[in-house]
Amino acid sequence: MARDLSGATSARRHSGLQGLCLAAAIALPFLLASLLTGGARLVATEGARTGFAGSATCASCHAPQAEAWRASDHARAMAAAAPRNVLGDFSGQTVTDGRHTATFLRDGDRVLIRTDGPGGIVADFPVSETFGVDPLQQYLVLFPDGRRQPLPWAWDSRPREEGGQRWFHLMPQEALRAGDPLHWTGRDQTWNFMCASCHTTGLERGYDVARDAYATRWTEHGVGCESCHGPGAAHVAWARGGAGTDVSGRGLAVALRDASGGAWRFHADDPRGIAHWDGPPRQTAAMQVETCAPCHARARPIVADPLPGARFLDTHAPMLLQRGEYQANGRIQGEVFEWGSFAQSRMQRAGVVCADCHDPHSGRLRAEGNAVCAQCHLPTRFDTAAHHHHPEGSPGAQCASCHMPASTYMGVDRRRDHAFSLPRPDVAAAVGAPDVCTSCHQGRSAGWAAERIVEWFGPRRRDDPHWALAIQAGRDGRPGADAALAAIATDRAHPAILRATAVSLLPMPPSQASAGAIGATLLDPEPLVRATALRALEGLDPRNRLHAVRFLSDEFRLVRIEAARALAPVPLEAMPAAARPAFQRAWEELLASERVAAERPEAQVNLAALLAARGDVTGAEAAYRAALARDPDNLAALVNLADFEARRGRPEAAEEALRRAVAAHPREAEPHFALALALARRGRTTEALAPLAAAAALRPDEPRYDYVRAIALNDLGRREEAVGVLRGNLARNPRHRESLIALATIERDRANFAEAERQAQAALALNPNDREAAALLQQLRGLRQRTGPLPR
């Protein structure tokens, strides 16, 4: 559940409900005949992996823990489709939501779903495994090429009185058809890549690049003991050999038990009523969180089939607080799971770990309701109406109601935000985020809620000015955002994920403020911040990226591969001789990190770009062809291939790729725009006008399309039309600097000096340090002095 491919997901993916496989792998060839009701029976692929002993072996010595685990969602995350594991009603009923239809059948011990499959053909698909249990259960179909695909119909396993015990479609608002990547048979729903590592133990994905198929294996269904504790064979050998066996650390691959002797305790002299850790530092605090993180974060794996016990940033690149996935105030928005919000929290910085609140074996809370918070927050201080200002026993009196707002995913799955943030209705309103107060007090405004907060706690809050305002300004590209983001990025009192997000939003080319922030964060003690600062160097000329050399041997893999990525276009001979071996090692780690997702066309596009940057034209071309072999209509592959072909002097091939992109994605603006630029570069400016107009019509909120169209019209001598396009563009996007400068320049050339000066003034107001705008304005004022004053 933790896979992520930055930039690879469709906007539709987050506009509705999806299967547990949030973004997945490639559509592979279908062999439908053997999947029909009368076809061959397909079975799970389960077998031993070196070093694994199995949960049953663990249970022989750890019975209480095993008993708690057996009833957990972890243990039941996946199971063979045996009658005892199937919760759904397969009695023959047919269900439709108006767009999709399915019939649920039973054939002896087998269960089948009749629905539209490959090519749109309706067939009976045998279920190979169940997938999850609470609050819904999905069902997998095994295809002959080794793919497992989750069917889009899920069983609502909640009690009937809560609306459960029914079938429902996970994406009812999407009229999905075979061939669509989000159709259940499509590449964006393949379990092997997207879901398998977090629903099985001891996974070996077994993707065969040459055959474009899978031979996936695992040691057991579900999240077993060794998913968290690591391979247990050495520990079993120690246990069976007795105390005299020469095995270090009792043979444990991952030691999670804290033996420091410390505890969370209240101090009588602390008026805040918040517990502190007493005793030696927790020995396994970081390991506990990083054991959970790979499956409870949106993250891109950077090594294949990692084993438990590795540091998170040695195996994964976590998603930052990206637009569409997190609100600007950090609240969860897309299906991002728990780590990203917990990483923002004061709890995480204080040393709280997952197991402080959750029993690691049952998965249940350590206590019910407010009692779980009372472990560290004194009830006489916090569990009172004087603090929460709601009637005792009411929903508003529950800590989680205000500090852990919930969002619903997959139709019925309520998940709580783990940032433990303070209610700030004023900030939520300022950044357009949901407000925890008015989500309960419906009909009330955010202003009303903000007034109540001021009444209760005063006009100033300890997190003023709130960082969300800077994040929103950075997302919107507002003037002054660079300085505000730089202040967040360099303030080590903020959590690493927030500071890294601020770095990622710094404008390029860098202003003085952003350049200083990037330089400072390159030396940050947090590896996530360092890695993000290195990624920011991609906005600089390759000659200015040699700062990355010192990070090629960083302690953390994520930092090393980002250093290599930044240095990709830098010739080896331009690097210090002593750094060249380190670059070669980090470069191989970088390529290997992209090949982890070799079945994804997006990963092949990334590989192609990296290889092209190093001058490996043959390798880059092969990677682009591999991307298109996996998805002939992949937009990123076609557009990037076109740029690659143009750069190597093949404009006809570039144009062909872009026309393919436009034909495959007529409702996407970017291929129209790219085609227009390609035509203009070949001197076919008149022909470029139509795709420019198409791009602007598809994305009126993207000002660069109409800006370029206006420049093209002006170049063709159609100045009046150019002015009209620019004025319309500025009416929709009044802060678009390039359009203001262009309009000022055209009006100057038409001798409309007063109007030109107005536009130049507006451009300079966006950024008083804009030298081009200042020079243009000075020129225009000189011209105005010779033509008379501005009219009133």
Principal-axis shape: globular
CA radius of gyration is 29 Å
Distance between the termini: 63 Å
Characterize the main sheet: 6 strands, antiparallel
Counted by DSSP, the helix tally is 34
- E-strand count: 20
β content, as a range?
5-15%
GO molecular function, one term: oxidoreductase activity
Keywords: Signal, TPR repeat
InterPro entries: Cyt_c-552/4, Multihaem_cyt_sf, Multiheme_Cytochr_ET, Paired_CXXCH_1, TPR-like_helical_dom_sf, TPR_rpt
Pfam family, one: Paired_CXXCH_1
Structure description:
With 792 residues, this protein is an alpha+beta fold. Among the domains are: 11-227, no CATH class; 263-422, no CATH class; 700-792, Serine Threonine Protein Phosphatase 5, Tetratricopeptide repeat (Alpha Horseshoe). The chain has 34 helices and 20 strands. Strands 1, 6, 7, 8, 9 and 10 form a six-stranded antiparallel sheet that branches. It has a four-stranded antiparallel sheet with strand order 2-3-4-5, with no helix packed on it. The longest helix has 17 residues, at 771-787. Keywords: Signal, TPR repeat. Residues 354-378 form the Doubled CXXCH motif domain. GO terms for molecular function: oxidoreductase activity.
